[in-house]
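Table S5 (text form). Sequence records supplied for joint modeling of the two-component complex.
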Amino acid sequence: MKDFYKNLFLFILPLFILGGWFEYKLHRVPNSYNFKRDQLAKVKNEVQAIFLGTSHIHFGIDPSILKEVKGFNLANVGQDIIVDSQLILKLRPNLPSLKYVIWGLDNSSIGSLIQDSVEKWRNHAYRRYYQIAGSDSFISKLDIMNWSAFFLLGQSTSLHFLKNNFKINPVENINSLGFQKSRVKQGFEKKAEKDAADHELLFHQENLVVIKQEILLTKKRLEGKGIKVLFIRTPVHKSYREKLSKKMHNAFDSFKSDLDFIDYPEDLFTTQDFADSHHLNNQGAEKLTVLIEKAISF
Amino acid sequence: MLFNSFHFIVFFLFGTLFFSLLNNKFKWPFLLGLSLFFYGYWQWSYLVLIGLSIIIDYFCAQMIVKRPERKKVFLVFSILSNLSILGVFKYAFFVTSTFSSLGSFLGLSFDPFTMKLLLPLGISFYTFQSMSYTIDVYRGQILPEKSFFKFALFISFFPQLVAGPIERAKNILPQFCSANKITAEDLVKGLRLILLGYFLKVGVADNLAKYVDVIFSNTLVLDTFSALLGTYFFGLQIYCDFWGYSSLARGCAKFFGIDLMKNFDHPYRSLNISEFWRRWHISLSSWFKDYVFIPLGGSQHKLLRNLFLVFALSGLWHGASWTFIIWGIINGLGVIVHKLYQAHLRKSIQSKMSNGLYSTLCWFLTFHYVMFSWVWFRSSNISLAITYFERMVSLTYRTLDAYQLPDIRTGVLAIILLIILEVFMIKKRAIGIFPKFFRWGLYYACLFFLMFYGQLSSEKQFIYFQF
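The corresponding structure-token record, covering 765 residues in total, follows.
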């Protein structure tokens, strides 16, 4: 038995060393969550406007263009409204100059939750980097993604970093105010139908009530602190809009009816403003940011 | 708790650690508690049903010995109880929905009582194991186990509870009763089997499942190539899935000093369909042989009828669906044709060609017969299975991109590794004969493959868990 334990130890030792080294290197790779958290910490005393929402805001609003106020884009890919809400309530006490929260809504986000989507792994990032979106259950604490960067990032991404000797900077396209430049996908109109169908799958009518309640509650709490909460619809390409079902359009119209909603003519945005069927490109982001600044007149 | 989940790894590590620290007297109660926790972790209500099965069979076996004049009554009671549990929870919905379909086919307004109950995991496995115990006691082949808890452990022993092997009391119970000194060799063998199991399940089967799931969900629009690809990939997926589970079960059991029977012996090397069934799910085949085929008359009386019945039942055992029954019948017909061929044609055909060519031809035919029969096993209903075959011979072509399949290279790599493993195991059966650096290199390579290419996050259920 002694030999067995000795051999087992010798066999496992290199695995532990390699695994530990790999985890350490992966932990040091910046990501959009810790990058935004750190950047926000640098400007926390000056920030007056926070932008929340999904990838549509993450790629669609560039606060560096704002002239009148100091803004920060805290949106992220797949970030649902519940997470938005938890994030802003958690961070608000550290943002003494905060006056505006601009919340991006779209046809899909008003009825979808991150835990129902393939993006649910992102909840672990919120737990790790913002200490929110967590569950207190013992089982959820056992989840390996809570503490392993390898499992959080996934095998192919981790392998990609390893192959490139960890010299990749995944946040190089995110500016210091949280806006990420997008890459234009050619011929995206052809994919619009699939994009719309994917979003329809994520949309669940029964989530509307929960999400609306969360929004109204958060709005009330923020307004109680003197912060104005405004909502915007993120523009989508007509190829995508036309493929969305009537159910989705109706749900959105009904959802926004009693919110302070900043609207603008959809035809202001042309094909040249989009990276894909439902995300703006850099030019589109600039246009939207200017438009919002005008509409809000900070 | 799935074997391929992080929760299981934690459960197993702590379970084995505590087990090794315990005094012999407390080991089996602890193992029983561990097994019940493992099963209840899925759904606590499952424990009620397995508990019922345990109580009935423990009681019946005791009574068979105490009241020999009424032993038949207790045996019948035990069998009927087990079959009723299985019938209600596994087959009730199938039977009522079949009657309903038949009624509407005949134009009758027939709305039968239907219920869809939760199918407890592994119910087919443990009810068969429990029945075999009572039958063996009835036949006088074993004495009933005195300790209720040891018997409960025999039925619920977690490594084999949800997907077999369907163990026999004479093999397992004495192992619970012995002092059971776990040797270093046991642990080494256990670790090797566990690594092999994970490699096969997470590395190969789950990688192939990515393609199989997409292909079978697109049955209506498949082209010839994709239909063939799906057939072979599923054949290899289920092979690795079941082999992987069997290895994991045996490997985990070794850590508690228990030797489980071999349930899988490279069935795709078989040269005929009868041999395939002696190598695939060995414990189920031998169960049907001992408790159905031989009592029906075996090979002495109405052999072909007996074979047909046994295979149809075996299909039904796998699942409450006509596709499983058809799959069983196809395999049964294969065995019948093989028996007839052996009796009448084999000698004359074999004499016309070399042994090598003959064996290759036999292997080729058996392999493909099994592969194409799996389509019935994998399809959700008869109509989809027929459509799948129609699409296979449609001679149409669509690119794989049309199905949005994941990158095919991982699947191909998984198959190449499987072939290497099979060849390796033909040539050298025991890895222990290789030098240490080679063995360790192989283990590290295996772990590396699992870490970067295995389907770690999918935690896909073993196919046989559904039975």
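Note: Chain B has two domains: 6-180, 186-461.
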